[in-house]
Amino acid sequence: AMPTSGDASGALPHPHVVLLPSAGMGHLVPFSRLAVSLSSPGHGCGVSVATVLPTVSSAESAHLDALFGACPAVRRLDFHLAPFDASEFPGADPFFLRFEAMRRSAPLLGPLLAGAGALALVTDIALASVVIPVARDLRLPCYVLFTASAAMLSLCVHFPAYLDANAGGPVGDVGIPGVYRVPKASIPQALHHPEHLFTQQFVANGRELAKADGLLVNSFDAFEPEAIAALRNGSVAAGFPPVFSVGPLAPVSFSASEPPENQADYMRWLEAQPARSVVYVSFGSRKAISKDQLRELAVGLEASGHRFLWVVKSTVVDRDDEAELSELLGEGFLERVQGRGRALVTKAWVEQGEVLKHPAIGMFVSHCGWNSLTEAFASGVPVLAWPRFADQRVNAGIVARRGAGVWVERWSWEGDDGVVKGEEIAEKVKSVMADEMLRRSSTVVREAAMTAVAGGGTSYRSLAELVARCCD
Ligand code: UDP
Ligand code: UDP
């Protein structure tokens, strides 16, 4: 069907799709990319993003302001949560608590969605099991955006069956039918604990996914052929709904129209660096690194002799971060590395999608959050994988398998003892920076990613097919 444009009264163009992200930048980022993509002239959808205010982190709040400011075609739909008593989960991660608060408020979505006049809903994986039944009652087609890799999606789908067969025994290696075996050491930490809030949500979501109208995944056919094929051909679960592999979703540039003098300091600093000379270091938006490990990382980056741009995060929620960088990183470090302009160390948010596209970047030391990786693949930047938590070891395995980077498997994982020493970090950084083969294979990954999202490519066609279904 042809989209019709909005009329003068401001009605949304058709088809109108409501997107419902959960909490944390790792979830908001792919949803805002999807929103921009769906509302682009090529796909022509009206899009609303259901939004819970206030957000958990200030990064989310700033991102939403930028999205709605820059993209008037994307509307905000306020989702007011029911009162929620977090004291039931002492010490729980604030993002998981927000997932839970949203899950318990799912009945309130009925009236909200009915009033919005949506033709389809795309919900977040973290909310899937409670939102799918609400959408079914409204007879609203419900799609789920899985915000991690297709391999992780296959694990999410298979894991309930694994637990049932395992009859309460400890979680070991998990062989995913038609995909591959995920070793015990790569299973997200929480999944070893059945009572963990994340595990309960993960299992409930995994059980319900087969009832969705389709799954969207921010990956592409050529990159994760095993998992995508196995999900589509019923090997992972019989009768599984269609899988739309739509990645890598393109970063949205909110600052592209800014004149050069308004550019952020890190972009101006990057402009002054030679091609492929800078090591970019970030462990994502979500987790702190221990003070001891931060110190060793500082030693390692300094000893590598390379230029670097390092985004330091020392708390789970950015609003809590008051520590001084100089105190975190050790006496004299900042003066030594920043003094002569060799490095830039910041606690501020950087537009990572833009950073990774910059020609000065030579490699990426990454915690392997899936969004970060998709940005690295799309930019052809080799990754030194240092997974810490959640799905990140599964992701690091994909990086290594596809020649998009290297993974030192024995490096610490949250919950392990031990700190990786600065000398070892320095050696690895030097070897990745010097690795021409890796640079070439990372370029091959970028070319495959660009082919997938270009007109006629697998990811482009997947998204077009989803839009066509939403019009029916
Ligand atoms: N990000 C960013 N600037 C930062 C830190 C993170 O733009 O200073 C973005 C990053 O590019 C990615 C998202 O935030 O798109 C983080 O998601 P990811 O899945 O990589 O990791 P998480 O933060 O959820 O662990
Ligand atoms: N996830 C999942 N099922 C769920 C909730 C999350 O499969 O019920 C995925 C999610 O997409 C993420 C990974 O598992 O990539 C870890 O979840 P979390 O939200 O902790 O990670 P984040 O993206 O915030 O780093």
Characterise this structure.
The chain is 42% helix and 13% strand. With 472 residues, it is of the alpha/beta class. Strand 4 (120-124), helix 5 (128-137) and strand 5 form a beta-alpha-beta unit. A seven-stranded parallel β-sheet has the order 3-2-1-4-5-8-9, sandwiched between helices. Helix 6 (150-166) packs across helix 8 and helix 10 (291-304) packs across helix 16 (422-433). The protein contains 18 helices and 15 strands. The structure holds uridine-5'-diphosphate (2 copies).
List the helices and strands and how they pair.
Blueprint: E1 16-20, H1 25-39, E2 46-51, H2 58-70, E3 74-78, H3 94-104, H4 109-116, E4 120-124, H5 128-137, E5 142-146, H6 150-166, E6 174-175, E7 181-182, H7 197-208, E8 214-217, H8 225-232, E9 243-245, H9 265-271, E10 278-282, H10 291-304, E11 307-311, H11 325-329, H12 333-339, E12 343-346, H13 352-357, E13 361-366, H14 370-379, E14 383-385, H15 392-401, E15 405-407, H16 422-433, H17 436-453, H18 458-471
Parallel strand pairs: 1-2, 1-4, 2-3, 4-5, 5-8, 8-9, 10-11, 10-13, 11-12, 13-14, 14-15
Antiparallel strand pairs: 6-7
Helix pairs in contact: 1-2, 5-7, 6-7, 6-8, 10-16, 14-17
Bound molecules: uridine-5'-diphosphate (2 copies).
One uridine-5'-diphosphate binds at residues 24, 26, 95, 125-126, 147-148, 152, 156, 201-202, 205, 286, 369-370, 390-391.
Number of helices: 18
Helix content: 40-55%
Number of distinct beta strands: 15
Low-pLDDT windows of residues: 1-9
Radius of gyration from CA coordinates: 22 Å
For the termini, the CA-CA separation is: 8 Å
The strand order across the widest sheet is 3-2-1-4-5-8-9
Q: Which sheet architecture does the biggest sheet show?
A: 7 strands, parallel
Mean pLDDT: 93
Strand percent estimate: 5-15%
Taken from the alpha-carbon principal axes, the silhouette is: globular
Determine the structural class based on helices, strands and strand pairing: alpha/beta
| Bound chemical compounds | uridine-5'-diphosphate
